[in-house]
Amino acid sequence: MRLPDALIATGLIVSFLVFSPAVFAQPMGGTPQSPEEAPAAPGAPNATGVENEAQTLALKIEKARRQGKDVSKAEAEEKQGEAALRAGYKSEAAQHFKRAQLELVNQ
Length: 107
Hints:
mainly alpha, 4 helices
């Protein structure tokens, strides 16, 4: 009686080891390989929107400077936003650009 039970148990273990990797394996190609390939969260600023905001902000700062306004705080926020954008922190960059916009409005 012991031998048939041992053969059945061995058969189950071998079949589990042979077929389980195919059943439980994650399909290849479904997972993004880098952060740039990953989809953005809904409502998160996208790179082109933030980059466009940065360019528009630079023009507004230059215009305010020509008008004789103090743009030092806005420039500081813009520089921090540019650094965050280069590092890939789009949301943080957008926050700095918004603060810079507010500084220009308050001048």
